[in-house]
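Hi F.,

I've been meaning to write this up properly since the lab meeting, where we talked about keeping a consistent format for the predictions we share between groups. The idea is simple: the sequence comes first, exactly as it goes in, then the structure tokens exactly as they come out, then a line or two of notes. No screenshots and no reformatting. I'm using this chain as the first example so we have something concrete to point to.
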Amino acid sequence: MATLAPGAFAARLGQIASSLRGMARVASDGLLDGMGEIAETAVKRLVERTPRSDGPGPHLADGWTARQVDVAPGWLTIDVVNTHPAATEPLRTADGRVQNYTLLEVLEYGSVEHEIRPVNAKVLAFMGGGGGMVFTRHVDHPGTDPYAMVITTEAEVAVDVKRLIDSTRRTLTMRVTGGKK
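Output, unedited:
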């Protein structure tokens, strides 16, 4: 077994440390860039999947954004959030009652069949499908089908993150082995 002189051994350790720092930089830069791209793609997917009403905006879909959160020195988190008030504030019905859920929750998970009756008037009034005004004492709302835009995007993000980690691992393996398999 060959031995190295102390000076040569120290120099070799220095080379290994330098190589490890270089690989850490490559992995860190690649992961940060990749996570940023994944977050931006998630925002685009959510904007596309979140339904919009026919009325003027801003709409719930317009509230999706990615933001960096520094949780501790050396740690970075990228959150994808919806900043529209309807995403976090309890839903207020036309009669002024405050519900214990948000519009975002209704769109994500759907709602059950329910009856709508006027509270502060004798009839409900709204534009009908044919464009004319409708006046009625109640509406049997069929419920809202879930859009599942968040859970669907979350599953896709998990796949994207796995691909990024696998790609980073392959890049580091190539650096360590000098491109040999």
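Notes:
The longest helix spans residues 6-49.
The beta strands are 64-72, 75-82, 114-116, 124-127, 133-136, 139-141.

If this format works for you, I'll send the rest the same way.

G.
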